[in-house]
Amino acid sequence: MNNRRFQTLVIIICLTLITLLFLPSKVFAESEGNFQITYENAHEVFEKMSNEELNNFINNIATSYSNSKTSQTSILQTVSVEQYNSIQLAWLAAAQIARNYGYPCAATLVEFSVKNIPYSECGEGLFINKIRTISVYKDYISKLKSDSKIPNSITFSKSDNADLFYALHKVNIKSSKGLLSIYTITILDTFDFAYDNNYNDLFTNIVNNWAWLCQQTHVLHPISVIITLSEQ
Fold it and tell me: For 130-152, what is each residue's pLDDT tens digit?
């Protein structure tokens, strides 16, 4: 009898552990299916979604927003805190689509703009690794080392690198020479989506509901971009 009770207890414990192990993934799946995605877990969730799922996510938010919007009041007057957060999530989903299509720099600045966080890199990083391969930057460094006249701005063209073209395009650049002939290069820019028409070319072809999303730039913030490189 004692052995049977012990075996029963073991079975109950095992079943309980199995239930606990699988419960989080079930809840996560249900939340994702119902688009219960939070500001905190958005990046992790969106990384696992296909472009079709991300576009459907944006479409659901657009539909929900349109249904709740009245024609008598302006957009800003009708946007509740919940709607504002949902629109931010829609932008983060659009950024993930851009990343999936091979534009991680452009996606990153949109994400930082949504979160209202200045972006900076120093030494090595996503932007720096790409900038060093671009001819216009190489020409700048060549002129700098030869004491030739250097410009105070450079422009990344679409043919150079489409990702940098969409993310930065024309930037201010300055340099200083330190010990052991090590140059510090600083690239400065202000990312302001509302005044950057380049992004239309990128997102129009990959985000199905881009026209609606373009009307919701009030959730984006202008942010400073500072990229610091060292060259010898």
Answer: 999 999 999 999 999 999 999 99
Single out the residue of 42, 27, 137 nearest to residue 86, CA to CA.
42
Q: Which two tokens stand for residue 131?
A: 């900038």
DSSP assignment, residue 124? B
Cβ(224)–Cβ(113) below 8 Å: no
Secondary structure of residue 119 in the 3-state scheme: strand
Other beta carbons less than 10 A from residue 52's beta carbon: 10
Task: Compute the distance between CA of residue 159 and CA of residue 83 in angstroms, rounded to an integer.
Answer: 38
Q: What is the pTM of this model?
A: 0.78
Of 52, 53, 69, 112, the residue nearest 88 (C-alpha): 112
Query: How many CB atoms are located within 10 Å of the residue 59 CB?
Result: 15
C-alpha–C-alpha distance, residues 37 and 53, integer Å: 13
Domain boundaries, the chain: 51-231
Q: In the predicted model, is pLDDT for residue 93 greater than 60?
A: yes
Contact (Cβ atoms closer than 8 angstroms) between residue 135 and residue 160: yes
Q: Work out the end-to-end distance of the chain between its first and last CA atoms, rounded to an integer number of angstroms.
A: 81
Phi-psi region at 117: left, alpha or beta (left = phi > 0; alpha = psi -120 to 50): beta
